[in-house]
Amino acid sequence: RFQIQRGKTDPTGYKSLGDCFRTIFQREGLLGFYKGIFPPILAETPKRAVKFFTFEQYKKLLGYASLPPGLAFAVAGLGSGLTEAVVVNPFEVVKVTLQTNRNAFIEQPSSFVQARQIIKTDGLGFQGLNKGLTATLGRHGVFNMVYFGFYFNVKNILPVNKDPNLEFLRKFGIGLVSGTIASIINIPFDVAKSRIQGPQPVPGEIKYRTCFKTMATVYKEEG
Fold first, then answer.
1. Is the dihedral of CA 36, 124, 84, 194 positive or negative?
2. CA geometry: angle 177, 5, 7, nearest 5 deg
3. Rounded Cα distance, 129 and 149, in Å
4. What is the pLDDT of residues 30-87, one digit of tens each?
5. Which of 1, 120, 133, 208 could potentially form a cystine with 214 if both were Cys, beta carbons 3.0 to 4.6 Å apart?
6. pTM of full prediction above 0.85
7. How far apart are CA 115 and CA 171, in angstroms?
8. How many contiguous H segments (helices) and E segments (strands) does the chain have?
9. With contact defined as beta carbons under 8 Å apart, do 1 and 191 qualify?
10. Per-residue pLDDT tens over the stretch 159-204
11. Which positions ≥6 away from 182 have C-beta within 8 Å?
């Protein structure tokens, strides 16, 4: 909801995270927080399988290119993220469409009905079920590149601890920092994706069309 707000002048905007939670609960009920939950659940298994399988395959291929290990991890992560994005983007389009619907949970269509409606109205292409693909490619590609690159490089630098509890904390800490840094870097792509896949400011007019143009528009209008 925050990502599709158009600055402080947006009359439907939320003032804070707490205000967002209160407003959704009051107007849409408890189930309002679970809108669009089915598409991510459906996508989760193939998403993880594609992510880690392709990462290993790209890593093997890059082994023939004589790249430094640190760079190879980052490039393999980029490749796995781009591949993953192609798989998850249709699910993301349906999810965002459902989550931006401010009607009560019981009043909105199911995930399958919403998907059929998108296909019927706009097709399977870049205006329909694959809308915002370039932004999704950027989001997943950048995240995985930073995450895997940072995680494996730092993991190989920091010494292994013989104590299993401390070793768990070492890996957990590296993973936490890796995910945090990757999220900070990829959030502009995520905002662009939400703007492209979500409702346009003026019905019938497409303001947010491509990834980098959307980023430029958001930066120009909102900073």
1. negative
2. 95
3. 31
4. 888 888 888 888 888 888 899 999 999 999 888 877 788 888 999 999 999 999 999 9
5. 208
6. no
7. 39
8. 7, 0
9. no
10. 888 898 999 999 999 999 999 999 999 999 999 999 999 888 887 7
11. 142, 143, 144, 146, 147, 150
Asked if 198 and 4 touch (Cβ cutoff 8 Å), the reply is yes
Identify whether the C-beta of residue 78 lies closer than 8 Å to the C-beta of residue 144. yes
- Locate tokens 């097709």: which residue? 123
Residues 149, 83: Cα–Cα separation, whole Å: 17
Mean pLDDT of 12-37: 81
What's residue 21's pLDDT? 82
Please give the span between the terminal C-alpha atoms of the chain, in angstroms, as a whole number: 18
- pLDDT, position 17: 82
Alpha helices of 159-210 — where are they, by DSSP H?
164-197
Would you state the structure tokens that stand for residue 7, as one six-digit string?
């600055």
Q: Residue 70 has which token pair?
A: 């640190």
121 to each of 110, 115, 116, 117, 129, how far by Cα in Å?
Answer: 16, 10, 8, 6, 10
Q: Which strand (E) or helix (H) includes residue 19?
A: helix 17-28
pLDDT of residue 11: 61
* Strand, coil or helix: 213: helix
Structure tokens at 59: 């890593």
